Prior knowledge:
The protein is of the alpha+beta class. Among the domains are: 28-100, Type Iii Antifreeze Protein Isoform Hplc 12 (Alpha-Beta Complex), CATH 3.90.1210.10; 103-223, no CATH class. 14% of the residues lie in helices and 25% in strands. The chain has helices at 2-24, 186-198, 221-224; strands at residues 28-34, 49-55, 108-113, 129-137, 149-163, 179-184, 200-206, 219-220, 268-273, 276-281. Strands 3, 4, 5, 6, 7 and 8 form a 6-stranded antiparallel β-sheet that branches. Strands 1-2 form a two-stranded antiparallel ribbon. A two-stranded antiparallel sheet has the order 9-10. Strand 9 (268-273) and strand 10 form a beta hairpin. The longest helix has 23 residues, at 2-24. It starts with a helix and ends with a strand. The relative contact order is 0.11.
Amino acid sequence: MIAVSVAVGLGAVVLASRWMSEQTSVSTTKIVVAANDIDLGTPLTPQMLKLLDWPNGSVPQGAIQDPKTLDTRVVKVSLQRGEPILESKLAPLGTKGGLSAVISEGKRAMTVRVNDVIGVAGFALPGNYVDIMVNTEDDSIKGEGKNKIISKIVLEHMLVLAVAQEASRDETKPKVVNAVTLEVTPEEAEKLDLARSVGSLSLVLRNQMDSSEVTTGGANKTNMLQRLNEPEAVPEKPAAPQTTVVEKKVVKKVIVYRAPARKASKEKIEVIKGTQTSDHEF
């Protein structure tokens, strides 16, 4: 019994040791990771990189194994310490450092002047999306004394590339700045420049996951003061000229013919007295 127990115990120890050795001998691959935090648009140097063992079964797609191939490459997103350097996070070869490295293909960067109110109290940070609203006069409204002031959203879902001279997307603390740089298409750049020249601009912060576009008719003084459940005011039309109708009365003259009055008929009696006669009427 003792011999059997010893043999079983030794077998269990051997099996456990073999299982533990298999668990600790997982094959790994060395990949390049960030040695410290790196801001977007920064050219990489050897001091910013290091090699780290990574399990073979979970190596990210596009991982880099040779740090020499990353010399002077520019990152187009911010990287955290220990984060793998992937090809998808790098700007194309030949790209110089700076903000131009993070602009998407076919897009442009345009800066607009803001203040603590227009800049959404400093909450419009790099990486956020904003809408552009302009307050101007609507020349399509005709007529003297008409209020032509209108506020209208002219651009939607604009990416904020930088605020002032900072493009870092890691900070969440609001910053009151005097300029915001936006990523726009050439057509949007033209519209933004026109809106800036004809009126005052305001930034409207939106949810980063909300990419929907809404077409609005703009707000003016008339619909702004519209009360609840009150039908929308219809623009007044010029009154049509009034026509005065004069009724002409025709007076008809009626001639009444009246017959002459007849005298009442009388009885006549002849009276003879001797040789004298006389007539009496009654």
